[in-house]
Task: inverse folding
């Protein structure tokens, strides 16, 4: 009855229409306002096609900002097959420019896909890219890309590492700091319909963001000197391998590091995993030989078990311990000598005596305190541990051999870090190669590495005595070949017999030398090891000491190390070129100057009878073959 009334039916119909209109309006509002961004993005995703633009990796630089690894700008060809009308012509023209096979290009431009990268069209330089660009073909896109570049090639390969084809770090610092070096990729976006035909909508471009800069403690000039020296050692002695490390002993900063054999990071695929993964200065383990005697020396001085300058030891050429005979390198021995001379002469029986006086617990306590047997914590991957005896497994023979660096195994980085502690005042530092990480966009430092002292191992007074003794080794002992006139150099030689299948090899040694300067306040320490050099007398003082000397000479120039007075005079043999301190003759008469400079060649210039100026200057050490020029006034 209610709906029989026409007015009621009209009102009801009107209400229904109003409700439907409100629902429609609400739906339109929801679509246009509430869901607009979501639906717009869905629509855009259906139309849009993206080309990823790889971000350049961050640079790796040395301590002075010199580029060690960077990204070069290149270009990559992308093709959208459905947008290319004349596939044969496009393929022919691109193939000619790329100097590649027509069929190789055609297979990409004729595929049924939304987008393809032409493999031969990757990493193009600007001249080739310009030629492609001038063709102006639809469906052919040129996208700026980047390619990793290592300006020093093999020189730093084990440290810097390398990246894969996707620009991801695979080894070395490139791997360890990949998340910092990797930038944020950009993109080029174009719009097309379902068939791939380009729509008349402007392309959009989001620029990539470059990765962060990795600043190292290394100095490329010193690294080049190291690389040159170890290359020469490999060539001259036909060695199996060679390595060198230069460090600031007070801080643990690595200034230079290198080893051979190495590899080319741009062509790493051509090398074996053995060559690529073995960063010898931190991975290689071997018996250290006599360079390890520095640790026994430091322990002895700290404990005060002998007076180096007064107490004596008589070396007959061998010493018998628990039925085993241990020989000195010098046939017949050194005779009676002070313990200072034991160190200068690198006398094995003398160091056996020092080890016995210390005992197992004390000696091994110091050895572990100096960091042997555990990783140093250097910020490079692949570090080795080395091998030490357990105290309970050490008998008299093991104690004796450990005292002179035999029967244990260490890494080069452990060796140089430990000796740094022995000469820097007694602090064991953590070595490191990364100085800071810099955000290029804000120019801010997001991470800074600072020296880290693990512990004090010996006192400052003991360290000072160790430096004095090691300076004496270079001036008067086995390290003479590392002596540098007008500078104070300390150091120790090492000759370690190699082990194979549990037996010592005959005539196969690792020859090493560790040296530092200035001896009274060390600014740089250098460790060199040459593996199995041939055609030479196998002593560390003969092979490795001259190499270390050359590296230290480079460090003097690179680091600006000044001359030092008060050093020990070298004890010369008849084979050495003799150096003497030049007397000051300014103000003397010509006759007096001639007598005073009788050890040198003298040349006069100018008129008069008194010396007004001399070159080289007074008080410097010069070869007796040097000509001293005197200006007369």
Result:
């Amino acid at each position: 009855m209610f709906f029989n009334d026409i007015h009621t039916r009209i009102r009801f119909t009107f209400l229904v229409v109003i409700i439907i209109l409100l629902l429609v309006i609400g739906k339109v509002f929801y679509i246009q306002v509430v869901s607009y961004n979501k639906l717009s993005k869905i629509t855009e995703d259906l139309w849009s096609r993206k080309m990823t633009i790889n971000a350049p990796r961050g640079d790796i630089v040395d301590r002075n900002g010199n580029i060690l690894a960077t990204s070069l700008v290149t270009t990559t060809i992308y093709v959208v097959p459905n947008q290319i009308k004349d596939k044969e012509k496009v393929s022919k023209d691109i193939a000619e420019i790329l100097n590649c096979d027509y069929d190789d290009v055609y297979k990409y431009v004729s595929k049924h896909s939304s987008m393809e990268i032409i493999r031969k069209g990757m990493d193009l330089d600007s001249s080739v890219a310009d030629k492609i660009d001038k063709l102006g073909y639809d469906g052919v896109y040129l996208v700026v890309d980047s390619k990793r570049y290592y300006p020093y090639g093999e020189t730093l390969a084990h440290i810097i590492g390398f990246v894969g084809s996707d620009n991801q770090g695979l080894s070395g610092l490139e791997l360890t700091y990949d998340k910092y070096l990797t930038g944020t990729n950009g993109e080029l976006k174009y719009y097309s319909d379902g068939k791939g035909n380009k729509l008349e909508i402007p392309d959009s471009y989001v620029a990539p963001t470059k990765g962060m800069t990795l600043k190292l403690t290394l100095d490329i000039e010193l690294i080049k000197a190291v690389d040159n020296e170890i290359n020469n050692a490999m060539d001259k002695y036909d060695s199996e391998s060679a390595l060198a490390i230069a460090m600031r002993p007070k801080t643990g900063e690595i200034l230079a590091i290198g080893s051979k054999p190495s590899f080319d990071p741009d062509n790493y695929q051509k090398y074996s995993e053995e060559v690529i993964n073995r960063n010898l200065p931190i991975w290689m383990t071997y018996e250290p030989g006599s360079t390890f005697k520095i640790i026994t020396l430091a322990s002895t001085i700290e404990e005060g078990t002998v007076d180096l300058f007064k107490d004596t030891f008589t070396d007959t050429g061998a010493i018998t311990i628990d039925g085993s005979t241990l020989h000195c390198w010098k046939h017949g021995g050194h005779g009676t000598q002070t313990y200072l001379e034991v160190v200068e002469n690198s006398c094995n029986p003398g160091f056996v005596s020092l080890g016995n006086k210390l005992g197992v617990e004390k000696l091994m306590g110091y050895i572990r305190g100096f960091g042997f047997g555990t990783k140093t914590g250097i910020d490079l991957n692949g570090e080795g541990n080395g091998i030490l005896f357990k105290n309970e497994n050490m008998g008299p023979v093991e104690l004796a051999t450990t005292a002179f660096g035999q029967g244990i195994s260490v890494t080069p980085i452990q060796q140089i870090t430990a000796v740094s502690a022995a000469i820097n005042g007694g602090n064991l530092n953590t070595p490191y190669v990364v100085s800071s990480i810099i955000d290029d966009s804000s120019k801010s430092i997001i991470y800074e590495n600072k020296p880290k002292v693990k512990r004090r191992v010996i006192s400052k007074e003991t360290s000072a005595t160790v430096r004095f003794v090691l300076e004496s080794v270079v001036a008067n002992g086995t390290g003479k070949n590392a002596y540098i006139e007008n500078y104070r150099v300390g150091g120790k030689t090492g000759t370690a017999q190699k082990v194979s299948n549990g037996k010592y090899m005959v005539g196969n040694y690792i020859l090493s030398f560790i040296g530092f300067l200035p001896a009274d306040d060390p600014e740089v320490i250098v460790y060199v090891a040459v593996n199995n050099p041939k055609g030479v007398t196998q002593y560390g003082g003969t092979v490795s000491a001259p190499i270390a000397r050359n590296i230290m000479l480079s460090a003097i120039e690179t680091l600006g190390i000044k001359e030092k007075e008060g050093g020990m005079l070298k004890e010369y043999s008849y084979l050495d070129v003799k150096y003497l301190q030049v007397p000051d003759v300014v103000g003397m008469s010509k006759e007096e100057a001639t007598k005073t400079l009788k050890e040198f060649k003298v040349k006069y210039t100018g008129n008069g009878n008194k010396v007004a100026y001399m070159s080289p200057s007074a008080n410097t050490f010069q070869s007796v073959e040097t000509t001293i020029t005197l200006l007369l006034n």
About this structure: The radius of gyration is 36 Å.
